[in-house]
Amino acid sequence: MTGIPYSCQTIEDADVDAVIATLRSPFLTQGPAIEAFEKAFGEAHQIAECVAVSNATAALHIACLALGVGPGDIVWTTPNSFVASANCARYCGASVDFVDIDPVTRNMSVVGLKAKLEVARDGGKLPKVVIPVDFAGLPCDMKAIRDLADTFGFKIIEDASHAVGAVLDGHPVGSRHVDIAVFSFHAVKIITTAEGGMCATQDPEVAAKLRLLRSHGITRNPEEMVNESEGPWYYEQIGLGYNYRVTDLQAALGLSQLKRLPQLYARREALARRYDELLADFPFILPSREAISQSAHHLYVIEIDERASNVDRRTAFEALRGMGIGVNVHYMPIHQQPDYRALGFKPGDFPASERYYARAITIPLYPTMTEDQQDRVVEALKQTFGL
Ligand SMILES: *Cc1c(COP(=O)(O)O)cnc(C)c1O
Known about the structure:
Elements: H1 13-23, H2 32-45, E1 49-53, H3 56-66, E2 74-77, H4 84-91, E3 95-98, H5 110-122, E4 129-131, H6 142-152, E5 155-159, E6 167-168, E7 171-172, E8 180-184, E9 197-201, H7 204-214, E10 218-219, E11 236-237, H8 248-259, H9 261-278, E12 284-285, E13 293-294, E14 300-304, H10 313-322, H11 338-341, H12 351-359, E15 360-363, H13 371-384
Helix pairs in contact: 1-8, 2-8, 3-4, 3-7, 5-6
The chain binds pyridoxal-5'-phosphate (PLP).
Pyridoxal-5'-phosphate binds next to helix 3 and helix 4.
Protein backbone atom coordinates (compact mmCIF):
# COMPACT_ATOMS: atom_id res chain seq x y z
CA MET A 1 0.00 0.00 0.00
CA THR A 2 1.61 3.23 -1.12
CA GLY A 3 1.33 6.39 0.93
CA ILE A 4 -1.09 9.23 0.21
CA PRO A 5 0.64 12.64 0.19
CA TYR A 6 -0.97 15.72 1.79
CA SER A 7 -0.68 17.55 -1.51
CA CYS A 8 0.43 16.72 -5.03
CA GLN A 9 0.78 18.64 -8.29
CA THR A 10 -1.39 17.77 -11.28
CA ILE A 11 0.73 17.44 -14.43
CA GLU A 12 -0.91 16.35 -17.66
CA ASP A 13 0.39 15.75 -21.20
CA ALA A 14 -0.69 19.25 -22.23
CA ASP A 15 1.64 20.70 -19.55
CA VAL A 16 4.56 18.58 -20.73
CA ASP A 17 3.90 19.54 -24.37
CA ALA A 18 3.75 23.24 -23.49
CA VAL A 19 7.11 23.14 -21.71
CA ILE A 20 8.76 21.15 -24.51
CA ALA A 21 7.43 23.55 -27.16
CA THR A 22 9.01 26.45 -25.24
CA LEU A 23 12.24 24.54 -24.80
CA ARG A 24 12.44 24.22 -28.60
CA SER A 25 11.56 27.91 -29.13
CA PRO A 26 14.08 30.78 -29.31
CA PHE A 27 13.09 31.91 -25.79
CA LEU A 28 13.97 30.13 -22.58
CA THR A 29 13.60 33.20 -20.39
CA GLN A 30 11.88 36.57 -20.91
CA GLY A 31 10.00 35.39 -23.97
CA PRO A 32 6.34 35.58 -25.03
CA ALA A 33 5.07 32.96 -22.56
CA ILE A 34 5.62 35.26 -19.57
CA GLU A 35 3.45 38.01 -21.00
CA ALA A 36 0.84 35.49 -22.10
CA PHE A 37 0.74 33.95 -18.62
CA GLU A 38 0.49 37.36 -16.95
CA LYS A 39 -2.34 38.37 -19.27
CA ALA A 40 -4.29 35.14 -18.82
CA PHE A 41 -3.82 35.19 -15.05
CA GLY A 42 -5.04 38.79 -14.94
CA GLU A 43 -8.11 37.87 -16.99
CA ALA A 44 -8.91 34.89 -14.76
CA HIS A 45 -8.68 37.07 -11.64
CA GLN A 46 -10.02 40.31 -13.19
CA ILE A 47 -6.82 42.16 -12.22
CA ALA A 48 -5.40 44.73 -14.65
CA GLU A 49 -1.67 44.31 -14.05
CA CYS A 50 0.17 41.09 -13.29
CA VAL A 51 3.93 40.80 -12.77
CA ALA A 52 5.28 37.23 -12.74
CA VAL A 53 8.34 36.59 -10.57
CA SER A 54 10.58 33.73 -9.49
CA ASN A 55 8.54 32.83 -6.37
CA ALA A 56 5.94 34.31 -4.04
CA THR A 57 8.57 35.21 -1.45
CA ALA A 58 10.19 37.49 -4.05
CA ALA A 59 6.71 38.78 -4.92
CA LEU A 60 6.07 39.70 -1.27
CA HIS A 61 9.47 41.40 -1.06
CA ILE A 62 8.96 43.65 -4.08
CA ALA A 63 5.33 44.25 -3.13
CA CYS A 64 6.56 45.73 0.16
CA LEU A 65 9.19 47.82 -1.65
CA ALA A 66 6.69 49.05 -4.26
CA LEU A 67 4.47 50.31 -1.43
CA GLY A 68 7.40 52.15 0.12
CA VAL A 69 8.22 49.87 3.07
CA GLY A 70 11.65 50.67 4.48
CA PRO A 71 13.66 51.04 7.69
CA GLY A 72 11.58 52.41 10.55
CA ASP A 73 8.31 51.14 9.10
CA ILE A 74 6.08 48.52 10.69
CA VAL A 75 4.31 45.72 8.85
CA TRP A 76 1.64 43.49 10.36
CA THR A 77 0.66 40.01 9.28
CA THR A 78 -0.88 36.88 10.80
CA PRO A 79 1.06 34.32 12.86
CA ASN A 80 -0.78 31.50 11.07
CA SER A 81 1.17 31.56 7.84
CA PHE A 82 4.35 30.49 6.17
CA VAL A 83 7.32 32.54 7.41
CA ALA A 84 7.63 34.36 4.06
CA SER A 85 4.54 36.46 4.90
CA ALA A 86 6.52 38.12 7.69
CA ASN A 87 10.10 37.88 6.42
CA CYS A 88 9.35 40.13 3.43
CA ALA A 89 9.07 43.17 5.71
CA ARG A 90 12.38 42.40 7.37
CA TYR A 91 14.10 42.22 3.97
CA CYS A 92 13.15 45.90 3.62
CA GLY A 93 14.55 46.82 7.03
CA ALA A 94 11.06 47.21 8.53
CA SER A 95 9.87 45.57 11.73
CA VAL A 96 7.11 42.97 11.93
CA ASP A 97 4.21 42.49 14.30
CA PHE A 98 1.26 40.13 14.21
CA VAL A 99 -2.51 40.20 14.61
CA ASP A 100 -3.98 37.03 16.09
CA ILE A 101 -6.40 34.85 14.15
CA ASP A 102 -10.15 34.41 14.26
CA PRO A 103 -10.47 30.80 15.49
CA VAL A 104 -13.35 30.10 13.11
CA THR A 105 -11.84 31.27 9.81
CA ARG A 106 -8.21 30.83 10.99
CA ASN A 107 -7.49 34.10 9.14
CA MET A 108 -6.35 37.38 10.70
CA SER A 109 -9.12 38.55 13.03
CA VAL A 110 -10.70 41.76 11.77
CA VAL A 111 -11.90 42.57 15.30
CA GLY A 112 -8.37 41.98 16.59
CA LEU A 113 -6.93 44.13 13.81
CA LYS A 114 -9.22 47.04 14.67
CA ALA A 115 -8.42 46.83 18.36
CA LYS A 116 -4.68 46.69 17.71
CA LEU A 117 -4.90 49.62 15.28
CA GLU A 118 -6.62 51.76 17.91
CA VAL A 119 -3.86 51.03 20.41
CA ALA A 120 -1.19 51.65 17.76
CA ARG A 121 -2.72 54.98 16.76
CA ASP A 122 -2.68 56.16 20.37
CA GLY A 123 0.96 55.11 20.60
CA GLY A 124 1.84 56.72 17.24
CA LYS A 125 3.01 53.41 15.78
CA LEU A 126 0.61 52.50 13.00
CA PRO A 127 1.67 49.92 10.40
CA LYS A 128 2.52 51.09 6.90
CA VAL A 129 1.35 47.82 5.37
CA VAL A 130 -0.87 44.97 6.61
CA ILE A 131 -0.48 41.53 4.98
CA PRO A 132 -3.58 39.38 5.55
CA VAL A 133 -3.21 35.78 4.37
CA ASP A 134 -6.06 33.80 2.81
CA PHE A 135 -5.27 30.76 4.92
CA ALA A 136 -5.91 27.39 3.24
CA GLY A 137 -7.53 29.31 0.37
CA LEU A 138 -10.35 30.92 2.37
CA PRO A 139 -10.51 34.64 1.46
CA CYS A 140 -10.14 37.16 4.28
CA ASP A 141 -12.94 39.68 4.77
CA MET A 142 -11.08 42.18 2.62
CA LYS A 143 -13.85 44.77 2.47
CA ALA A 144 -13.76 45.15 6.24
CA ILE A 145 -9.96 45.36 6.16
CA ARG A 146 -10.14 47.99 3.39
CA ASP A 147 -12.46 50.08 5.58
CA LEU A 148 -9.85 49.94 8.35
CA ALA A 149 -7.08 50.77 5.83
CA ASP A 150 -8.98 53.89 4.80
CA THR A 151 -9.53 54.92 8.41
CA PHE A 152 -6.03 54.21 9.68
CA GLY A 153 -4.04 54.90 6.52
CA PHE A 154 -2.23 51.67 5.77
CA LYS A 155 -1.82 49.72 2.54
CA ILE A 156 -2.85 46.10 2.00
CA ILE A 157 -0.83 43.28 0.47
CA GLU A 158 -3.06 40.22 0.26
CA ASP A 159 -0.98 37.06 0.55
CA ALA A 160 -3.21 34.94 -1.66
CA SER A 161 -0.58 32.22 -2.09
CA HIS A 162 -3.18 29.59 -1.10
CA ALA A 163 -6.08 31.19 -2.89
CA VAL A 164 -5.63 31.08 -6.69
CA GLY A 165 -9.16 30.98 -8.08
CA ALA A 166 -10.96 31.69 -4.80
CA VAL A 167 -13.95 34.05 -4.81
CA LEU A 168 -14.98 36.83 -2.42
CA ASP A 169 -18.37 38.46 -2.69
CA GLY A 170 -18.78 37.21 -6.26
CA HIS A 171 -15.38 38.55 -7.43
CA PRO A 172 -12.08 36.74 -7.93
CA VAL A 173 -9.77 36.94 -4.95
CA GLY A 174 -7.27 39.80 -5.12
CA SER A 175 -9.33 41.84 -7.58
CA ARG A 176 -10.80 44.33 -5.11
CA HIS A 177 -10.00 46.19 -1.90
CA VAL A 178 -6.24 45.46 -1.84
CA ASP A 179 -3.20 47.34 -3.17
CA ILE A 180 -1.32 44.25 -4.30
CA ALA A 181 -2.27 40.57 -4.23
CA VAL A 182 0.48 37.96 -4.22
CA PHE A 183 0.08 34.40 -5.50
CA SER A 184 2.40 31.38 -5.27
CA PHE A 185 2.92 28.70 -7.93
CA HIS A 186 5.13 26.47 -5.81
CA ALA A 187 4.58 22.80 -6.66
CA VAL A 188 2.20 22.16 -3.74
CA LYS A 189 -0.06 25.14 -4.51
CA ILE A 190 -3.26 25.32 -6.59
CA ILE A 191 -1.51 25.68 -9.96
CA THR A 192 2.23 25.37 -10.38
CA THR A 193 5.19 26.65 -12.35
CA ALA A 194 7.50 24.47 -10.15
CA GLU A 195 8.70 27.68 -8.46
CA GLY A 196 6.96 30.93 -9.24
CA GLY A 197 4.89 33.80 -7.97
CA MET A 198 2.77 36.72 -9.12
CA CYS A 199 2.19 40.28 -7.98
CA ALA A 200 -1.20 41.49 -9.14
CA THR A 201 -2.52 45.04 -8.87
CA GLN A 202 -5.17 47.29 -10.40
CA ASP A 203 -2.73 50.26 -10.17
CA PRO A 204 -0.51 50.77 -13.26
CA GLU A 205 1.97 52.94 -11.31
CA VAL A 206 2.50 50.24 -8.71
CA ALA A 207 2.87 47.70 -11.53
CA ALA A 208 5.59 49.82 -13.19
CA LYS A 209 7.50 49.85 -9.87
CA LEU A 210 7.11 46.09 -9.52
CA ARG A 211 8.46 45.53 -13.05
CA LEU A 212 11.54 47.63 -12.30
CA LEU A 213 12.15 45.85 -9.00
CA ARG A 214 11.82 42.45 -10.71
CA SER A 215 14.76 43.13 -13.01
CA HIS A 216 17.63 45.15 -11.48
CA GLY A 217 15.79 48.49 -11.55
CA ILE A 218 16.50 48.58 -15.29
CA THR A 219 14.20 50.20 -17.83
CA ARG A 220 14.22 50.24 -21.62
CA ASN A 221 11.20 52.54 -21.72
CA PRO A 222 12.34 56.03 -22.90
CA GLU A 223 9.54 57.65 -20.87
CA GLU A 224 11.03 56.30 -17.63
CA MET A 225 14.62 57.26 -18.44
CA VAL A 226 16.56 60.01 -16.73
CA ASN A 227 18.69 60.88 -19.79
CA GLU A 228 18.25 60.88 -23.56
CA SER A 229 18.68 57.50 -25.20
CA GLU A 230 22.15 57.12 -26.68
CA GLY A 231 21.07 54.50 -29.21
CA PRO A 232 19.12 51.29 -29.72
CA TRP A 233 21.31 49.39 -27.19
CA TYR A 234 20.61 51.87 -24.45
CA TYR A 235 18.99 51.04 -21.09
CA GLU A 236 19.13 52.72 -17.71
CA GLN A 237 19.16 51.53 -14.14
CA ILE A 238 16.97 54.07 -12.39
CA GLY A 239 16.68 52.34 -9.00
CA LEU A 240 17.97 49.31 -7.12
CA GLY A 241 16.21 46.12 -8.18
CA TYR A 242 16.77 42.38 -8.16
CA ASN A 243 16.84 39.46 -10.52
CA TYR A 244 13.46 38.00 -9.56
CA ARG A 245 12.49 37.01 -13.10
CA VAL A 246 10.70 33.79 -13.94
CA THR A 247 11.58 31.77 -17.05
CA ASP A 248 9.53 31.27 -20.20
CA LEU A 249 9.59 27.54 -19.48
CA GLN A 250 7.85 28.11 -16.15
CA ALA A 251 5.38 30.59 -17.62
CA ALA A 252 4.46 28.08 -20.35
CA LEU A 253 3.71 25.54 -17.63
CA GLY A 254 1.71 28.12 -15.67
CA LEU A 255 -0.33 29.08 -18.72
CA SER A 256 -1.13 25.45 -19.44
CA GLN A 257 -2.10 24.84 -15.79
CA LEU A 258 -4.23 27.97 -15.67
CA LYS A 259 -6.39 26.64 -18.52
CA ARG A 260 -7.46 23.80 -16.20
CA LEU A 261 -8.06 26.01 -13.16
CA PRO A 262 -11.87 25.60 -13.29
CA GLN A 263 -11.56 21.78 -13.29
CA LEU A 264 -8.88 21.75 -10.59
CA TYR A 265 -11.02 24.05 -8.49
CA ALA A 266 -14.17 21.95 -8.97
CA ARG A 267 -12.32 18.79 -7.97
CA ARG A 268 -10.94 20.35 -4.79
CA GLU A 269 -14.38 21.68 -3.91
CA ALA A 270 -15.99 18.25 -4.46
CA LEU A 271 -13.39 16.47 -2.31
CA ALA A 272 -13.61 19.09 0.43
CA ARG A 273 -17.39 18.76 0.50
CA ARG A 274 -17.04 14.99 0.73
CA TYR A 275 -14.68 15.37 3.70
CA ASP A 276 -17.18 17.79 5.30
CA GLU A 277 -19.83 15.06 5.11
CA LEU A 278 -17.67 12.04 5.97
CA LEU A 279 -16.06 13.75 8.98
CA ALA A 280 -19.15 15.54 10.30
CA ASP A 281 -19.46 13.24 13.33
CA PHE A 282 -15.76 13.04 14.19
CA PRO A 283 -14.39 14.92 17.21
CA PHE A 284 -12.99 17.59 14.88
CA ILE A 285 -13.43 21.23 14.10
CA LEU A 286 -13.59 21.33 10.30
CA PRO A 287 -12.67 24.21 7.96
CA SER A 288 -15.37 26.85 8.02
CA ARG A 289 -17.40 27.82 4.99
CA GLU A 290 -18.27 31.49 4.81
CA ALA A 291 -21.37 32.83 3.10
CA ILE A 292 -19.49 35.64 1.32
CA SER A 293 -16.70 33.57 -0.13
CA GLN A 294 -15.64 30.40 -1.86
CA SER A 295 -12.40 28.84 -0.65
CA ALA A 296 -9.82 27.52 -3.09
CA HIS A 297 -9.35 24.55 -0.67
CA HIS A 298 -5.58 24.59 -0.87
CA LEU A 299 -5.46 22.76 2.47
CA TYR A 300 -7.98 20.76 4.47
CA VAL A 301 -7.12 21.25 8.14
CA ILE A 302 -8.92 19.43 10.94
CA GLU A 303 -8.57 20.55 14.54
CA ILE A 304 -8.93 17.91 17.23
CA ASP A 305 -11.67 18.96 19.62
CA GLU A 306 -10.13 17.95 22.94
CA ARG A 307 -13.50 18.07 24.72
CA ALA A 308 -14.63 15.21 22.47
CA SER A 309 -11.44 13.19 22.15
CA ASN A 310 -8.54 12.24 24.37
CA VAL A 311 -6.19 11.50 21.47
CA ASP A 312 -3.69 14.31 21.27
CA ARG A 313 -2.33 15.83 18.07
CA ARG A 314 1.09 14.24 18.20
CA THR A 315 -0.28 10.75 18.85
CA ALA A 316 -2.81 11.13 16.05
CA PHE A 317 -0.24 12.55 13.67
CA GLU A 318 2.22 9.72 14.25
CA ALA A 319 -0.49 7.07 13.96
CA LEU A 320 -1.69 8.51 10.64
CA ARG A 321 1.83 8.76 9.24
CA GLY A 322 2.35 5.16 10.35
CA MET A 323 -0.64 4.19 8.23
CA GLY A 324 0.84 5.87 5.15
CA ILE A 325 -1.33 8.97 5.35
CA GLY A 326 0.81 11.99 4.45
CA VAL A 327 -0.52 14.37 7.08
CA ASN A 328 1.19 17.69 7.74
CA VAL A 329 0.80 20.73 10.02
CA HIS A 330 0.16 24.30 8.81
CA TYR A 331 1.45 26.32 10.60
CA MET A 332 3.57 26.62 13.68
CA PRO A 333 2.85 30.30 14.48
CA ILE A 334 5.57 32.46 12.96
CA HIS A 335 6.25 34.27 16.23
CA GLN A 336 7.21 30.92 17.82
CA GLN A 337 10.08 30.38 15.36
CA PRO A 338 13.45 30.83 17.07
CA ASP A 339 14.38 33.64 14.71
CA TYR A 340 11.24 35.54 15.80
CA ARG A 341 11.66 34.69 19.47
CA ALA A 342 15.07 36.31 19.14
CA LEU A 343 13.21 39.51 18.20
CA GLY A 344 11.30 39.38 21.49
CA PHE A 345 8.14 37.44 20.63
CA LYS A 346 7.15 34.80 23.14
CA PRO A 347 4.64 32.01 23.75
CA GLY A 348 1.29 33.45 24.78
CA ASP A 349 1.58 36.53 22.57
CA PHE A 350 -1.03 35.26 20.08
CA PRO A 351 -3.10 32.68 21.96
CA ALA A 352 -5.68 31.86 19.27
CA SER A 353 -2.93 30.96 16.78
CA GLU A 354 -1.13 28.90 19.40
CA ARG A 355 -4.28 27.05 20.41
CA TYR A 356 -5.10 26.38 16.75
CA TYR A 357 -1.57 25.11 16.11
CA ALA A 358 -1.68 22.72 19.06
CA ARG A 359 -4.70 20.92 17.59
CA ALA A 360 -4.27 21.19 13.81
CA ILE A 361 -3.59 18.42 11.31
CA THR A 362 -3.63 18.92 7.54
CA ILE A 363 -5.10 15.86 5.85
CA PRO A 364 -4.52 14.97 2.17
CA LEU A 365 -6.36 16.92 -0.51
CA TYR A 366 -5.33 17.33 -4.14
CA PRO A 367 -7.19 17.18 -7.45
CA THR A 368 -6.00 13.72 -8.55
CA MET A 369 -6.99 12.16 -5.23
CA THR A 370 -9.53 9.38 -5.81
CA GLU A 371 -12.57 8.71 -3.63
CA ASP A 372 -10.94 5.40 -2.68
CA GLN A 373 -7.89 7.26 -1.42
CA GLN A 374 -10.11 9.69 0.45
CA ASP A 375 -11.97 6.76 2.02
CA ARG A 376 -8.62 5.35 3.16
CA VAL A 377 -7.84 8.64 4.89
CA VAL A 378 -11.23 8.59 6.61
CA GLU A 379 -10.75 4.96 7.63
CA ALA A 380 -7.33 5.77 9.11
CA LEU A 381 -8.87 8.66 11.06
CA LYS A 382 -11.57 6.29 12.37
CA GLN A 383 -8.94 3.87 13.66
CA THR A 384 -6.80 6.64 15.10
CA PHE A 385 -9.67 8.15 17.08
CA GLY A 386 -11.19 4.78 18.06
CA LEU A 387 -14.49 5.37 16.25
C1 LIG B 1 3.96 29.12 -0.22
C2 LIG B 1 3.71 30.39 0.48
C3 LIG B 1 4.53 31.52 0.33
C4 LIG B 1 5.83 31.48 -0.41
O1 LIG B 1 5.70 31.02 -1.68
P1 LIG B 1 6.98 30.63 -2.54
O2 LIG B 1 6.45 30.70 -3.95
O3 LIG B 1 7.36 29.24 -2.14
O4 LIG B 1 8.04 31.63 -2.29
C5 LIG B 1 4.16 32.69 0.94
N1 LIG B 1 3.05 32.76 1.70
C6 LIG B 1 2.26 31.70 1.90
C7 LIG B 1 1.04 31.84 2.73
C8 LIG B 1 2.58 30.47 1.31
O5 LIG B 1 1.82 29.40 1.53
